[in-house]
Every structure is written in structure tokens, then in C-alpha cells.
Amino acid sequence: MALTREEIVQTAIGLLEQKGLEGLSLRGLARRLGVSAPTLYWHFRDKRHLLDLMVEQMMAGPRSRQKLPENIEWWEKVTLVMRRHYKVLISHRDAPLAMAGKRPTEAMLPMIEEWLGLWTGAGFPPGEALNSILATNNFVLGAALEYQARVARERAGTPALCPEEKAQFPRLQEALAARRTQDTHANFEHGLHLIISGLRQRQAELLTEGKAPVSTTTA
After folding, report:
1. Which residue of 1, 49, 166, 168 lies most exposed, with the fewest beta carbons within 10 A?
2. pLDDT of 181-215, one tens digit each?
3. What is the average pLDDT across 167-191?
4. What is the pLDDT of residues 84-110, one digit of tens each?
5. Which DSSP state fits 67?
6. Own/partner pairs, 41-46, CB within 8 angstroms, 24+ separation
7. Does position 3 have pLDDT exceeding 60, yes or no?
8. 65 within 8 A of 208, measured Cβ to Cβ
9. Residue 192 in contact with residue 144, Cβ under 8 Å?
């Protein structure tokens, strides 16, 4: 029975979970599927294309498919989506690394068009809307990458500061001690709050300049 693209992508995701991005090779994937490596190129152009399809599949999970509430502000929708994407990325081993450098597949274009509509409907010019989307995506990606790296460091028992450094840098030691009392994802939430606050301020500036609609609620 012929392999389908979906089967290849699902198997590749499983291999990523087991061996990480460094251990994901086309040759290893072909062995897992019981085919020759050239066979895989009937379904995707290269490894980057495969990674794009893998990320698309991971992001299309049940959490991401939940419909956004309609009667909330545009920035609340952005907040919800950023949290959803962050949770998806940290739930898959090396997913942030796989997503770095991702390009949208054809299947994602309608969703991107709709998402741009949310931002332009809130008053952001198209170019600025796209830049804002890319900036928020980059933040989520970086936060997820750092979270997974932090977990790896803690599992390895790597201290943030050695005893000599603790005495030499008391303010840093105090800050790190305070951070240890926070929720695991407090750093993400702090950054998210700063970004959303900045975006709302930017929309207020557009309103003042007469470039944004008076209503900030979008359907």
C-alpha cells in the first residue's frame, strides 16, 4: 500500500519526539517507514519542506482548532492564540527548533489571510499588521525554545550561578531566587503582557492619527 504524506509526517513527528531534531534524518525516517530515502521526495521537496509540514500538523491539533470567542477584543484574541501556540510548541520535543525558519505551506494561506483580517480590522495597516504578526510569532518561538532549554538545564542539574558568582553578584542572585518562586511559565506571561500592552498602545496611536476604526471589537 502506497505511503501517504500524512503517514510520513506523523512518523517524522514520532521520530522527532524520540530523537530530537538532531536525530531526525531523512535516511532514518525512510528506514522507519521501510522505504528508500528517494521515495520520500515524492511527497516533499526537501527536509525544510518536511519540517514545515510537521509543524503545520502539530499546530493543527485540537487546542489550536478551538474556535476563538467572537465577542472579545482583538487583542484578547491575539493573547489566546499566542498562548495556544506556546503550549503546542512546548508540548513537542524540539518543536521550536523545527519551526525556526518555517515558511507557510499552501494549506496555511487561508488561515494567514483571515488572521491578517483581524489585525487590519483593528486598524493596523497591512504591512504593519504582518510585521506585528511576525514579531509576536518570534516571541512565542523564542519563549518556547528557552523554556525547553531551561527544562533541559534543570534536568542536568546545571546551576545558574556557582557559589563564587553568588557572592560576587548579589542583585542577580536575588533576582534568580525570586524567579524560582514563580510559576514555570511566568516569564512567557510577563513578555506576553508587555507585547499586548505595546500593541494596544500602538492602536491608540493609530486612532489618534485617524488611521484606525473607533470600534476595537472585531468579529
Report:
1. 1
2. 667 788 999 999 999 999 999 999 998 887 665 44
3. 80
4. 999 999 999 999 999 998 888 888 888
5. P
6. 43/3, 43/4, 43/5, 43/8, 44/5, 44/8
7. yes
8. no
9. no
Q: Per-residue DSSP letters for 197-219?
A: HHHHHHHHHHHHTT-S-S--B--
pTM of the prediction?
Answer: 0.83
Q: Which residues pair with 73 in a beta bridge?
A: 217
138-153 pLDDT, tens digit per residue, is 999 999 999 999 888 8
Rounded to 10 deg, the angle between the 47-59 and 26-33 helix axes is 70
Cα distance between residue 174 and residue 101, in whole Å: 36
pLDDT at 80 over 50: yes
Share of the chain above pLDDT 70, in %: 89
Asked if 185 contacts 72 with a C-beta cutoff of 8 angstroms, the reply is no
What is the chain's length? 219
73 DSSP 8-state letter = B
Give me 147's grid cell: 523554556
Instruction: Using the structure block, give the residue that is written with the C-alpha cell 470567542.
Output: 69
Phi and psi, residue 7, nearest 5° = -60, -40
Cell match 525516517: residue? 29
